[in-house]
From TrEMBL:
A family per Pfam: TetR_C_29
Cross-referenced PANTHER family: HTH-TYPE TRANSCRIPTIONAL REPRESSOR SCO4008, TRANSCRIPTIONAL REPRESSOR
DNA-binding region per Swiss-Prot/TrEMBL record: 69-88
Span list, region Disordered: 1-47
Name of the protein: TetR/AcrR family transcriptional regulator
Biased composition range(s): Basic residues: 10-19
Superkingdom of source: Bacteria
Compositional bias per record (Low complexity), positions renumbered to this chain: 21-37
Keyword annotations: DNA-binding
Amino acid sequence: MSGELVEPRSRRRPQRHRGTAAAASGPAEPVSVAAAPPKRRRRTPQDTRAALLKAAVAEFAREGYGGARVDRISKAARSNDRMLYYYFHSKEELFRQVIEHCYARLVAEEEALELDVTRPREALTALVAFNWAYYWDHPELISILASENLFKGRHVKNKIRAAFASSQFFTLERILDHGAKSGVFRPDCDSFLVYMSILSLTYFYRSNLHTLSNYMQVDLAEPARRDAWLAHVQRMIDDLVRRR
């Protein structure tokens, strides 16, 4: 007997004939190759600036000017502080541009209003409804303006005032003028006082929603209460200007 070691039969593994098995099972199906995922569009400078501005709106609305942090803004925008300062130079300038951005959006929606001034009562009612809805849909504007008022409006003076004069005010003047000429409205209506009344009655409810709800022990956010207040304000404004 030689000294060669032989693997026991029980441990021997039968060899597989892959070619025979493949032939028995028929032709192999073609292997599908997954398509490469589409390449993501490279971010442009405009994209980066817009992302930083959007993140800044959210940060200033949530934390106010004093509590807002530049590093949180750049992180939320998936950018960095260097790029933020490149586009906006300082936190103060960024806040000013955030306010400008919010005003620009408001004015754009005001200009998109299609009001028939030849039907002055209906147009005035629609104008009140626009303000009411806008403040509800843009709570960030409420928060940012509250923060700016703590600084006595120093960021919105001059440049923003000149660039974003409210077209809504001029629309209101046309409505009141047409209403007076047609005998529907009083001829002595002061457009400034009417405008301030509309803003006050629609803005105050929204801006003081939480404290008033607690003080009055009611939920002022309830749809029924909101609808009732809007109808009330519309009647008040109509009564204010309507000719007796």
